[in-house]
Amino acid sequence: MVKVIKVGMADLQSSVHPCIITTLGLGSCVGVALYDPVKKVAGLAHIMLPSSQQARNYSNIAKFADTAIVKLVQDMLALGAEKSRLIAKLAGGAQMFSFVDGSSEMLRIGARNVAAAKEVLNSLKIPIISEDTGGNYGRTIEIHSEDGKLKIKTIGHGTKEI
Amino acid sequence: MVKNINDLNSIHIDVLKEIGNIGAGNAATALAKLLNRRIDMDVPRVKIMEFRDVSETLGGAELPVVGIMLKVTGDFTGNILFILKQQAAEILVNMLMGRPAGDSGAAEGHVFDEIEISALKEIGNILAGSYLSSLSELTNLNIAPSVPDLAIDMAGAILSVPAIEFGKVGDSVLYIETEFTEGDKRVVGDFFLVPDVDTYSVLMNALGVNF
């Protein structure tokens, strides 16, 4: 039986092979899955907000794209991963509700989370090899340490692997 | 100084509970009139949770639910979320539309049509409107709900929407939750008022409590 590790909202986890790391019910949050295919080290972060820059009163660095991804990489290096081999997959960043005045900052948070995650990954030179982002529906995702595949489950929008 | 959830003491929590009590009491009466049935409510709970626990709070992050959300604007701001299990939503729609009250037996996979969705939104409207109007009377604050929007999806994904706002100001979220039940104890749904942290002080001061 493969070890299944759960990641909550504003949380991140990493592990060596064999494991499945999962996070349930991603809405506007974005899931960033990192993988080292040689050492088979997998990591997953469930990110709520784009940046720690405008935040106040926080101790949990797993909730922001800028701080969470850096921390996840550090954790994975400590488990034997090599930074130059890391690849990334993204999922989530939906807009669950579409109010008439779609201008509200909060309502576009999904798209902003995805953009911020990409920017951070680019600056760390970690290639994004696939993504399933946007839309207006929630996702449950799991990364498999065996081959780095990211399984995505939805309600009414099918299941896929990226 | 900017206040945070951690600055709330037990008196503040009691005030929030009482707000839930008065608001939800009014909302339950409105729903009972609408459906011509007896609607009960439990004692409102003030839930302060770390983000990682949020998705599981309604019995599973992947549980399919109907979520009706409204934004609260005016002197005091926040969000309102009314969450029903799929089956409860179906029963409610049937009651409202004068169909046989029982659910159609299709616990999963019932696709709500446009009329049913607008009926559910209207229920959200009435609940939120009556909840907020009693709150407004009590506090003398100007408070209004937005037009409702509806999503049918995983509980975790829906509950995360009001939680995200809190991420900017702290590491936990506060919900004032009340459960509504219909006559024979079938759960109708969970009503959440999620005031923005920045307006706690407005709310407290309007009720003569220091914050």
Describe what this molecule looks like in 3D:
The complex is a heterodimer of chains A (162) and B (211). Chain A is built from two helices and ten strands. By secondary structure, chain A is α+β, with helices and mostly antiparallel strands. Chain A has one domain: 2-Layer Sandwich (60s Ribosomal Protein L30, Chain: A), CATH 3.30.1330. In chain A, strands 1-3-8-9-10 form a five-stranded mixed β-sheet, with no helix packed on it. Chain A has a five-stranded mixed β-sheet with strand order 2-5-4-6-7, covered by helices on one side. In chain B, a hairpin with a 3-residue loop joins strand 7 and strand 8. With 211 residues, chain B is α+β, with helices and mostly antiparallel strands. Chain B is 41% helix and 27% strand. Chain B has one domain: Chemotaxis protein chec, CATH 3.40.1550.10. Chains A and B meet through strand 3 of A and helix 2, strand 3, strand 6 and helix 5 of B.
Give me the secondary-structure topology.
The complex is a heterodimer of chains A (162) and B (211).
Chain A: E1 3-6, E2 11-15, E3 19-26, E4 30-36, E5 41-47, H1 65-78, E6 87-92, H2 109-123, E7 128-133, E8 139-144, E9 150-153, E10 159-161
Parallel strand pairs in A: 1-3, 6-7
Antiparallel strand pairs in A: 2-5, 3-8, 4-5, 4-6, 8-9, 9-10
Chain B: H1 10-35, E1 39-41, E2 45-50, H2 51-54, E3 64-74, E4 78-85, H3 86-96, H4 114-139, E5 143-145, E6 149-154, H5 155-167, E7 172-182, E8 186-195, H6 200-206
Antiparallel strand pairs in B: 1-7, 2-7, 3-4, 3-5, 3-6, 4-8, 7-8
CATH topology of chain A: 60s Ribosomal Protein L30, Chain: A
Helix content of chain B: 40-55%
User: What is the level-2 CATH architecture name of chain B?
Assistant: 3-Layer(aba) Sandwich
- What does the overall shape of chain A look like? globular
Total DSSP E strands of chain B: 8
